[in-house]
Design a protein that fits this description.
By secondary structure, the protein is of the alpha/beta class. It folds into 2 domains: about 150 residues, Rossmann fold, CATH 3.40.50; about 110 residues, Rossmann fold. Helix content is about 45%, strand content about 20%. It contains 11 helices and 10 strands. The strands form 2 sheets. A 6-stranded mixed beta sheet has the order 4-3-1-2-9-10, with helices on both faces. The protein has a 4-stranded parallel beta sheet with strand order 6-5-7-8. Strand 1, helix 1 and strand 2 form a beta-alpha-beta unit. Pfam families: Asp_Glu_race.
Length: about 260
Amino acid sequence: MQIGFFDSGIGGITVLHDTLKVLPNEDYMYYADTLNAPYGQKTKDDVKKLALNAIEFISQQKVKAIVIACNTATSAAIEEVRAKYSIPIIGMEPAIKPAIKTKKNIDKRVLVTATALTLREERLQNLIAKLDNEHIVDLLPLPGLVQFAENFEFNEQIVLPYLQEQLSIYDLSNYGTIVLGCTHFSYYKDIFRKLFSSDVHIIDGNQGTAKNLKQVLEEMNSLNEGNGRISFYCSEVKVEDKAKLKEFDKLFKRLDAINECI
């Protein structure tokens, strides 16, 4: 049986990319809800409804686990989804816990970037209240990065000025860790790196999610020796077009290149 991955768009491919490193022999289906992307500026109720519809479709495709590779959808719908399905549902949240725990310099702050909905949701606010005893966490929505990614816009000359403008109100020397709390943002790690000194940590929750999935499957004794095949769906339509599949392949290659240079 395959593993289902779900995101509002192409952001979750960054999570799938890291998952392939720890579970290379599983088979996967990737569901991008492109007809309704982006999710980050919708209401919680709208996102919940869209996520439940997507998960219902994915659950019918002979999957043994589902990864909600989207911080926004996780924050809006994870409880309802887990209550409805018996198979494991792996969610995501911005990597605030490791950001605070691994902070080496007590004078440095943590900047959490995500979608507006993720940042204002009770799930994240409760996490910050629990962990941020020193009140060192700042929050920054970056909706433009989601739009860039969905448009396959990775040109540094276009993206870098946007980030510079959004970060202009901050003294960047105050920060020791930058949390990329939206899976779309991981496509831009190399551009974030240009804005911060080399000792600033830039982290996301992708590797943690992949390791969590592996642990769950091990506990279920449900690891496969499959072919590492991936099928892609745009909303409920399976992607067969070769040009579109090449676009997805380019995303994996971009992520490989980013890992090599940072």
